[in-house]
């Protein structure tokens, strides 16, 4: 019986080996060899080259901006949501999750239209007398797109951790003399920390590694580390360089996750929603 | 009696059109253990939450030491609450939990440390300062919740069914601990429970509530021995409650017989409730009792046997330490002193009693 049951895991194991383990091994191989197959560290150290380093810094900056904006939007929203009646709560959550059911590319293309110089946003600004401004093809547009795309990943874990706080815990704090400020900072914030941490990870990591958003909304003028890697694979056909830079980016991703996890005592509920 | 510490005047409260409390008036004396006792939905928890400040009445005033506190927020009241499900702060250590209120009132570090130690000792959990909440059992968590409340030296401690989630043995132990704490601390306890045994064990005064009304207030002995209506009689312990007619002073008829009793002043031929406690009925030879019947069930309860006797088409409940076998034909005997006569409910609030049985 047990043996038979294990067979069911077969297709998944084949999948993981074929599409996760093997590619990683290949990336590792390419990263530490040159075009002739000789061992080298050049591809990894290439991150120090100004153009690559600048792209990495910009990626980190935009990912950070996106994460902060998402957090500032999500936390108050989660609090408001939590205060609503259950029926209204699920409706509002539904509204926020709705965009996730539409194709990612479609949504970004829609933003391209909205943000363009002749787009709706600019024409509204013009009628209001602000004059047209260049949004598309700037880092601002890229952050816009990232926030729009990743916001649900921040809202849901924070909302979930907030819903879990029992009402009598808040009442107990008030009963012991806590005013609204103390209740917020000493009770609500610490108890929602696991949700905040998992929200940050789920927004920061994809924002750091994204390249399609910067391609479409940055118009090739906003060069993120993801774009550099993409170009070295596809345009430059330099798989070694692309792999080397990927390894660097992977290290940043793992480091940021480790950092966030070390700052949450209990990871219970983190990354689960 | 001490002075009035808390007084509720003409309190009305309803939720979504359902009246929970209807013109409630009650006061709580200093240094007493007062219990609000009643079935779920009787308004006892709402009353406690009104005193704690978690609810505001639709109308009526709440006085504390003579001052109106009706509109004060919970954090501005000199009362502390022990919640039914403990409501400890899971992200803090035990010491931080207990120190929460003291830190807010900006006490010195040394004072807080002393107080935390003292409070832990009081609830028999010395040395638990740095433990986490999750590592404690339910009983221990409840003790911490009590320590966290009393460390602030409130004038009144509100307890909302604090022992409801504990098992029987632990519950009994905690009952004695609460009595000890109350005596050591000299503060007023207002306790909410639906457990009549708990109420009888711990209270100085019991207020029996039903359907938003206070049915009776009195000492545990008064409430048990002299219940004022059928609801109280039935809720506090087991009772045989029979429809009867008060023929004249000291003579009542029920189930087709006449029996002497000690009650007077009901008038002539008044319909009444006749209440007889199961332990007040004696099983005797059929010819010696006021009526006779057959035993339909015998259950061993430890201290006594719980026996049911079918007599004159009424199922009598009897507690006795003697063993009888099912099917035996026996007589029922009761002394007049142990027959309680009660008015039939007249007003709507008392009628509510019937629907709840």
CATH superfamily of chain A: MetI-like
Q: Which percent range fits the helix content of chain B?
A: 25-40%
Order of helices and strands of chain B: EEEHEEEHHHEHEHEEHHEEEEEEEEEEH
Corresponding CATH superfamily of the largest domain in chain B: P-loop containing nucleotide triphosphate hydrolases
The low-pLDDT segments of chain A are 266-273
* CATH classification class of chain A: Mainly Alpha
Structure report:
The complex is a heterodimer of chains A (273) and B (357). Chain A has 273 residues and is mainly α. In chain A, 74% of the residues lie in helices and 0% in strands. Chain A has a single domain, classed as MetI-like (MetI-like fold, Orthogonal Bundle). With 357 residues, chain B is an alpha+beta fold. Chain B folds into two domains: 222 residues, Rossmann fold (3-Layer(aba) Sandwich); 118 residues, Nucleic acid-binding proteins (OB fold (Dihydrolipoamide Acetyltransferase, E2P), Beta Barrel), CATH 2.40.50.140. The longest helix of chain B has 18 residues. The C terminus of chain B is likely disordered. Classes of the chains: A mainly alpha (273), B alpha+beta (357). Chains A and B meet through α9 and α10 of A and β6, α2 and α4 of B.
Topology:
The complex is a heterodimer of chains A (about 270) and B (about 350).
Chain A: H1 2-7, H2 10-31, H3 42-45, H4 50-83, H5 86-97, H6 104-115, H7 120-127, H8 139-163, H9 167-175, H10 180-209, H11 212-218, H12 225-234, H13 239-262
Chain B: E1 4-15, E2 18-29, E3 33-37, H1 44-52, E4 59-64, E5 67-68, E6 79-82, H2 94-104, H3 109-122, H4 138-150, E7 156-160, H5 168-185, E8 188-193, H6 196-202, E9 205-210, E10 213-218, H7 220-225, H8 230-235, E11 240-248, E12 251-254, E13 257-260, E14 270-276, E15 282-284, E16 291-300, E17 305-311, E18 314-320, E19 329-333, E20 340-343, H9 348-355
Parallel strand pairs in B: 3-8, 3-9, 6-7, 7-8
Antiparallel strand pairs in B: 1-2, 1-4, 4-5, 9-10, 11-12, 11-14, 12-13, 14-20, 15-19, 16-17, 16-19, 17-18
Helix pairs in contact in B: 2-3, 2-4, 3-4
């Amino acid at each position: 019986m047990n043996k038979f049951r294990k067979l069911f895991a077969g297709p998944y194991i084949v999948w993981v080996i074929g599409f996760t383990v093997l590619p990683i091994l290949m990336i590792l191989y390419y990263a530490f060899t040159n075009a002739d197959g000789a061992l080298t560290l050049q591809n990894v150290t290439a991150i120090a080259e100004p153009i690559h380093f600048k792209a990495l810094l910009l990626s980190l900056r935009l990912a950070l901006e996106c994460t902060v904006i998402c957090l500032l939007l999500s936390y108050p929203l989660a609090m408001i949501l939590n205060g609503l009646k259950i029926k209204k709560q699920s409706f509002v959550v539904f509204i926020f999750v709705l965009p996730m059911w539409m194709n990612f590319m479609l949504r970004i293309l829609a933003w391209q239209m909205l943000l363009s110089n002749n787009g709706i946003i600019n024409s509204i600004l013009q009628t209001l007398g602000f004059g047209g401004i260049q949004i598309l093809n700037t880092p601002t547009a890229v952050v816009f797109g990232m926030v729009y795309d990743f916001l649900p990943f921040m809202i849901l874990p924070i909302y979930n951790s907030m819903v879990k706080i029992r009402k009598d815990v808040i009442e107990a704090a008030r009963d012991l003399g806590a005013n609204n400020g103390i209740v917020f900072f000493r009770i609500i914030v610490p108890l929602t920390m696991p949700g905040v941490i998992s929200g940050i990870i789920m927004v920061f990591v994809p924002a750091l590694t994204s390249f399609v958003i910067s391609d479409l909304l940055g118009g090739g003028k906003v060069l993120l580390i993801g774009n550099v890697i993409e170009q070295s694979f596809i345009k430059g056909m330099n798989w070694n360089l692309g792999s080397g830079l990927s390894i660097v980016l992977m290290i940043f991703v793992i480091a940021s996750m480790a950092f966030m996890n070390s700052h949450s005592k209990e990871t219970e509920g983190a990354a689960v929603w | 009696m001490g002075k009035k510490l808390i007084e509720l005047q003409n309190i009305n409260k309803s939720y979504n059109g359902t009246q929970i409390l209807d013109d409630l008036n009650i006061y709580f004396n200093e240094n007493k253990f007062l219990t609000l006792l009643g079935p779920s939905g009787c308004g006892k928890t709402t009353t406690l939450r009104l005193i704690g400040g978690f609810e505001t009445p639709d109308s009526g005033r709440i006085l504390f030491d003579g001052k109106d506190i009706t509109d004060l927020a919970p954090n501005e009241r000199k009362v502390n609450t022990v919640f039914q499900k403990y409501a400890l702060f899971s992200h803090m250590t035990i010491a931080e939990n207990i120190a929460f209120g003291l830190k807010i009132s900006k006490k010195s570090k040394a004072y807080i440390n002393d107080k935390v130690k003292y409070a832990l000792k009081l609830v028999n959990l010395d040395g638990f300062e740095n433990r986490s909440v999750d590592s404690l059992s339910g009983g221990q968590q409840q003790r911490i919740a009590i320590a966290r409340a009393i460390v602030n030296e409130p004038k009144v401690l509100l307890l909302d069914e604090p022992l409801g989630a504990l098992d029987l043995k632990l519950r009994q132990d905690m009952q004695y601990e609460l009595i000890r704490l109350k005596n050591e601390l000299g503060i007023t306890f207002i306790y909410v429970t639906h457990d009549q045994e708990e109420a009888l064990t711990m209270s100085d005064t019991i207020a029996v509530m039903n359907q938003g009304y206070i049915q009776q207030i009195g000492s545990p002995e008064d409430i048990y021995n002299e219940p004022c209506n059928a609801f109280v009689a039935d809720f506090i312990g087991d009772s045989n409650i029979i429809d009867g007619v008060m023929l004249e002073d000291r003579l009542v008829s029920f189930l087709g017989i006449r029996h002497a009793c000690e009650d007077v002043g009901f008038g002539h031929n008044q319909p009444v409730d006749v209440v007889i406690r199961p332990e007040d009925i004696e099983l005797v030879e059929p010819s010696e009792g006021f009526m006779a019947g057959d035993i339909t069930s015998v259950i061993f309860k430890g201290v006594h046997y719980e026996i049911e006797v079918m007599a004159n088409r009424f199922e009598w409940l009897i507690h006795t330490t003697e063993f009888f076998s099912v099917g035996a034909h026996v007589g029922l005997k009761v002394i007049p002193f142990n027959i309680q006569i009660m008015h039939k409910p007249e007003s709507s609030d008392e009628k509510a009693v019937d629907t709840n049985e």
